[in-house]
Task: structure prediction
Amino acid sequence: MRYRMIERCRDTFPIRLMCRCLHVSTSGYYDWRDRPLSQRAQDDRRLLESIRKIHDGSDGVMGSPRVWKELRYEGEACGLNRVARLMREQELHGIPQRKRWRKKVCGLRPKNVHNHLQRDFTASEPNSRWVTDITYVRTQESWLYLCVVVDLYSGIVVGWSMSHCQDRQLVLQAVLMALWQREAKTPVILHSDRGCQFTSDEYQRFLQGHNLICSMSAVGSCADNAAAESFFGLLKRERIYRRQYRTRAQARTDIFDYIERFHNPRKRRQLEMRQKQDLGLTKPSGEMG
Result:
């Protein structure tokens, strides 16, 4: 620690003076400075370059847990605590989540529509459970409304739409995009809150005509649609709150970039890692005789 302090201040104070004040020998300092880096220090330096690349590539929004996951995807054998230590030493930080709770007015749930998820936001196969919701983005021109459809199996945004109006067409366009990407025609549970766009007759008829099972949250319970709210929290924390949009077109372009060039590719990498791990667990360890 003393030698590092001398190294940091060598351009400001004489080295002999600092060694005398810190009660260390001058020869000991030069021996420490000329000593080659240990293998551990060399690995830390190499790992730090990868950490900086990932952190800069995320526009500075990723913290140590997600940086560590990206390193694992790239084949790095390192622990989470090591990544956290290196980022802390270099003052590399992610963006923490702000907790804000609020209640919003809910519509009446249509008859024969229930909460099929019951806050279980897991799925055993792709395109079996979707969640959808609407959020708004402030621009200097006016509000921009965004509707997304998220696949609970992978976390990928399979459908989205943006408009200056918060109407039924906004929701229908997002669901229609998700349907275009669905390969199989098996039934899918589509969960939402009780907004008027989701309780409308047109929306309900659209779901019935496309083999989608409607699921809705309870009254005044945002936790029932936490998966969609979680995505909006990431989007706003990592991108929207760090920008000032002059026009709705500028906001559209930036949100498209976040979903298709940052969020979805990251979720696909995580899904690929999970599938490789599952394959490794199910693969036999040796040939059967």
